[in-house]
Amino acid sequence: MSGNPFNTISEQYKRLLKAFSVNALKSIFNLNEFKETQPNLINRIMESNNVATLTQTVFDNFSLLKQHVYIYDFRGSVPANFLSTHPYFKSTSTAGGQQIYNLMFPVIVDFYNKDSKAEESIDYLLPVQIRRRGTRFIIAINILERDISSLLDNKIVGVKKNTEDIDILNSFTESARPHNIQLSPCDLNRGIKDLWHTDDIDASKAKVRMAKSVRTEALHEDLLLKRDMHPEYLNIIKDPVGTTTFKVLKENHSVDAFVVDPTKGIFNFAVFPRQHLATSDLIDLVLSKN
Q1: Which neighbouring-strand residues pair with 246?
Q2: How many other CB atoms sit within 10 Å of the CB of residue 227?
Q3: Which residues lie below 8 Å from residue 281, measured CB to CB, with a gap of 6+?
């Protein structure tokens, strides 16, 4: 941990709680009667909860976070103590027939403070939740979008963090290797195309393959690709689908929009879901159609 006064454990957990929406914080910690701003709500939460409780609460409500999700097919036998020796392992549990692994990665964000004329850093906590569903691992990484400029009344440049998604994924791969667990990206094309066909989802932005090139179709706000550009939709689904932005059309799904690269098995949920388990339920639905 660096010596910056912003890097006490308490301050790190305050930054961690900022990953939740105000509405989520009020619901999780039963603070609906308070009209305070997010910082004041977080101070109230910190006063009445210890680190262990906060850590478990974050993981219990992980699905309410913005997240990148990477899905892998695997072959091999997963031992009962899998990931327990990982340096950032926090806990494991079983729910709905799935094994859940919780990890908390420390992330250091370095920057240059133009006012103090010095290299400085701020420490963050990055929660990661891994689900084992059948022969698939679903690795969900909270999107680290906390704004350093909101913490410091200084001019800062050269911001960079020491841990990216690829580092976390490589860490997982390294943990799987001694157990001879073979991993490969999960192809989600069948599941995504099924939901697209049944009008559960429709694309607002997609890559369209041309005879000699690929173009990106970014539709106007009220337009959707299958509904309003049906020939292009029919052309897209002939091949593996590239990175596509989808709007969720059916109200029984509590996610409004998401980005997915079906061929690589990657989801991006950059908008807060409307309720608990919404993101994991949507992913499980895609996998059930796959």
Answers
A1: 203, 258
A2: 13
A3: 253, 254
Q: Are 64 and 24 in contact (CB under 8 A)?
A: yes
Task: Please write the tens of the pLDDT for every residue from 118-155.
Answer: 888 899 999 999 999 999 999 999 998 766 777 776 67
CB 47, CB 2: distance < 8 Å: no
Q: Is 115 exposed, middle or buried (0-12, 13-18, 19+ CB in 10 A)?
A: exposed
Considering the entire predicted model, what is its pTM? 0.93
For residue 43, give both structure tokens: 């101070």
Percent of residues in the chain assigned helix, strand, coil, to nearest 5: 30, 30, 35
Q: How far apart are CA 175 and CA 143, in angstroms?
A: 22
CA distance 258 to 248: 8
User: What are the angstrom distances between the C-alpha of 60 and each of 9, 56, 95, 202?
Assistant: 20, 6, 11, 30
Question: Could you give the CA distance from residue 176 to residue 138 in angstroms, rounded to a whole number?
Answer: 14
